[in-house]
């Protein structure tokens, strides 16, 4: 098992992974990894030095020379083994994740499992990384394509899914023949490091996967490094926009999945009980810390009368530490996150929204120091209010009203974000119209969090995404490979002496 080194203070230190070895950083800049339910310091994470970043990239560059030549079946077998190891350690991984991130143990297992699905997909790389061929496009000429790896790739991942999102990135990159440098969130890197150790146990050779930790300086170093060819990012819009601009200017291929304001449109013909259950779960699960959380409800027509029932359902959710049985809503990641969520709630009151349910300062016996915010609901919300215009990233549901489906579609399309949206209805005609006219990359029909399975890809749009290709599925294969087109002609005795041809034709 990955065991961080114990420093003189007897607090574990998270290591770097460079060239197949877990190494102690020589940095003087450290950050505490804190249990958000208790404020216990679990470990100290280093902010890697420039030399350490260079060493990680150099190791990946050296490893690429041989890894890119490794048969595709051998690469696939690594991920067959890896998915077995993740399954075998699911409980351990969930426990680490809950301790450092705060989400409930069942939700932590779901975090790992959604990443595991991508690992399973990576094991099918032999069927995914296929080129095309056209025989005899001209006299004796064949044209075909090769899908070849780029080289050293990098990933920058957020705190809210410290298992799933790293598993979105490096398995697909490595399976396609690249090598990888991963920078996990500095707030909760421990479960990521355990997954990395399991990846080495599965057979990923030294140097193929490397890990550096840190903040803004490390992100900038990844963006600028000449030997890194592609970067995948998931996180805030502010940082993602910076990464995209800086790395693109450095000539890299970049994909950035960023912030959101996901609307769930509820028509009055929807199944009321199922819709209310879905909305409460999607708004408040993971303490609202999901980029795909259904944080915004648009109640159409008579559905506006459902607000009291929605509030009553939200009141039944249990706020507690993620390790406690029956917990529905755990803490947010940090004291700063709690303060920001509470300030946004206060702004909603000040700007005239109706506070239907106030989740501030919930009583959580035994965890009085935890970063808890309970389910919070506002009605009467309008564009221009901070609680609508900003991504809250906490357990806060804002409710807007619309007179018709047309008005609801217009409202959603006017919002700059395009990560996900959903409609709740029993009308196939309304659902089809919604999916056609809505300008959002991922659409759910009676599904509140429409994150696609790995056979497809994550397809957020507009202000929620920069870059054309998503982070897993077929789009990830395209992102992590370059297409080389070969036009070939083999001469036989009859065509050997055709003479000089100065025209563009191949015939």
Automatic annotation (TrEMBL):
Residues 22-486 form the Aldehyde dehydrogenase domain. Signal peptide: none annotated. Keywords: NAD, Oxidoreductase. GO terms for molecular function: methylmalonate-semialdehyde dehydrogenase (acylating, NAD) activity. It is an enzyme of class 1 (oxidoreductase). InterPro entries: Ald_DH/histidinol_DH (IPR016161), Ald_DH_C (IPR016163), Ald_DH_CS_CYS (IPR016160), Ald_DH_N (IPR016162), Aldehyde_DH_dom (IPR015590), MeMal-semiAld_DH (IPR010061). Its EC number is 1.2.1.27. SUPFAM superfamilies: ALDH-like. Coiled coil: none annotated. One of its GO terms (biological process) is thymine catabolic process. Pfam families: Aldedh (PF00171). It comes from the Bacteria. Belongs to the aldehyde dehydrogenase family. This is methylmalonate-semialdehyde dehydrogenase (CoA acylating).
């Amino acid at each position: 098992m990955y065991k961080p080194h114990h420093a003189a203070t007897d607090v574990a230190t998270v290591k770097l992974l460079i060239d197949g070895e877990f190494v102690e950083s020589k940095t003087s800049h450290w950050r505490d990894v804190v249990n958000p339910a208790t404020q216990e310091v679990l470990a100290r994470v280093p902010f890697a030095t420039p030399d350490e970043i260079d060493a990680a990239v150099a190791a990946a560059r050296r490893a690429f020379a041989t890894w890119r030549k490794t048969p595709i079946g051998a690469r696939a077998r690594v991920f067959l083994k890896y998915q077995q190891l993740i399954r075998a350690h699911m409980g351990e991984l969930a426990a680490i994740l809950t301790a450092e991130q705060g989400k409930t143990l069942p939700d932590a297992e779901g975090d790992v499992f959604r990443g595991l699905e991508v690992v399973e997909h990576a094991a099918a790389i032999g069927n995914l990384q296929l080129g095309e061929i056209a025989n005899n496009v001209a006299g004796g000429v064949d044209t075909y394509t090769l899908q070849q790896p780029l080289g050293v790739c990098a990933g920058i991942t957020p705190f809210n899914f410290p298992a799933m999102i790293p598993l979105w990135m490096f398995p697909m990159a490595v399976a396609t023949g690249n090598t990888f440098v991963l920078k996990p969130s500095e707030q909760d890197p421990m479960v990521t490091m355990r997954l990395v150790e399991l990846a080495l146990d599965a057979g990923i050779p030294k140097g193929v996967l490397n890990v550096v930790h840190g903040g803004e300086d490390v992100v900038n170093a990844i963006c600028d490094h000449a030997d890194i060819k592609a970067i995948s990012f998931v996180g805030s819009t502010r940082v993602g926009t910076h990464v995209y601009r800086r790395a693109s200017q450095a000539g890299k291929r970049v994909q950035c999945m960023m912030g959101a304001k996901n609307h769930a449109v509820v028509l009055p013909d929807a199944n009321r009980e199922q819709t209310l259950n879905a909305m409460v779960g999607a708004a408040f699960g993971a303490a609202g810390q999901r980029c795909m959380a259904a944080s915004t409800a648009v109640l159409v027509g008579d559905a506006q009368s459902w607000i009291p029932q929605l509030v009553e359902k939200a009141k039944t959710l249990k706020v507690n530490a993620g390790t406690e049985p029956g917990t529905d809503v755990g803490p947010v990641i940090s004291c700063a996150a709690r303060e920001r969520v509470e300030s946004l709630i206060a702004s909603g009151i000040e700007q005239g929204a109706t506070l239907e349910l106030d989740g501030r300062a919930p009583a959580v016996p035994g965890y009085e120091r935890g970063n808890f915010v309970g389910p919070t609901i506002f009605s009467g919300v309008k564009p221009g209010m901070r609680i609508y215009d900003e991504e809250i990233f906490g357990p806060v549901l804002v409710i807007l009203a619309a007179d018709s489906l047309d008005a609801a579609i217009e409202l959603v399309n006017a919002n700059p974000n395009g990560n996900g949206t959903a409609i709740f209805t029993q009308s196939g005609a309304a659902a089809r119209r919604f999916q056609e006219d809505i300008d959002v990359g991922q659409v759910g029909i009676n599904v509140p969090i429409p994150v696609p399975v790995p056979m497809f890809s994550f397809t957020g749009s507009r202000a929620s995404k920069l870059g054309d290709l998503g982070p897993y599925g077929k789009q990830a294969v395209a992102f992590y490979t370059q297409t080389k087109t070969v036009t070939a002609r083999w001469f036989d005795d009859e065509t050997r002496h055709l003479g000089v041809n100065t025209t563009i034709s191949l015939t």
